[in-house]
Amino acid sequence: MLISPRLYAIEVPPWGTAGIENIKYASSKVVYDVTTGDEKALSDILSRVGLLYKLQGSDVFEGSVIVVIHGDAIPFFATNQFEKYKNLMYRANSLTVGTSVEFRMCNAAAKLLNYEAKDIHGFVKMVPMMADAEIARLQHDGYSYIH
Q1: What is the C-alpha separation between 137 and 87, in angstroms, rounded?
Q2: pTM, rounded to two decimals
Q3: Disulfide engineering: 106 pairs with which of 70, 97, 98, 144, CB 3.0-4.6 Å?
Q4: Distance CA 52, CA 30 (A)
Q5: Please, what are the domains in the chain?
Q6: Are 89 and 121 in contact (CB under 8 A)?
Q7: What does the radius of gyration of the chain's CA atoms come to, in whole angstroms?
Q8: HEC-encoded secondary structure of 91-141
Q9: Which residues make beta-bridge pairs with 31?
Q10: How many CB atoms lie within 10 A of CB 116?
Q11: What are the distances in angstroms from CA 96 to CA 5, 10, 21, 38, 136?
C-alpha cells in the first residue's frame, strides 16, 4: 500500500493564513444598481441586500438600502411574470416589510420594455427619470454605490 507523503506533510503557506477582523458595521445609506436578467444573480443580490441590512444593525432610522432596478432586471418585477418568479418576488417584498429597504424602478426604462406602473409589483416605487439619474441623485444625498 502506497501512502502519499502529502498526507503527512504539513505545508505552511508562505504568508500564513487569513485572520478574521472583528468589525461592527455602522448603519449607512447604500444604493444597489441592479440590471441582471439572471435569476440566480438576482437571488444572490437579494441575499446580499438582506445580509447588509442585518450587518448594519437593521436600523430603520439611520440605515437605508435602495435597490434601483433597470435593464434586464425589470421583467422579474412584472406582475405578469409572478408565477415564474414567485419565490424571488416574495423574498424581495419581504425585505421591505418593517425595514428601510426600498426597491425603485426606472419608469422610462420600464416603458421601453412596454411596462407601465400598473404592470409592476406594488412594493416597487417607480421613479420618473432614468436609473442613472436616480442613482446619481442618491449618491449626491450620501448613498454609497454598489453594483
Answers
A1: 31
A2: 0.84
A3: 70
A4: 9
A5: 27-146 (3.40.1260.10)
A6: yes
A7: 20
A8: HHHHHHCCCCEEEEEEHHHHHHCCCCHHHECCCEEEECCCHHHHHHHHHHC
A9: 66, 145
A10: 10
A11: 55, 49, 30, 22, 22
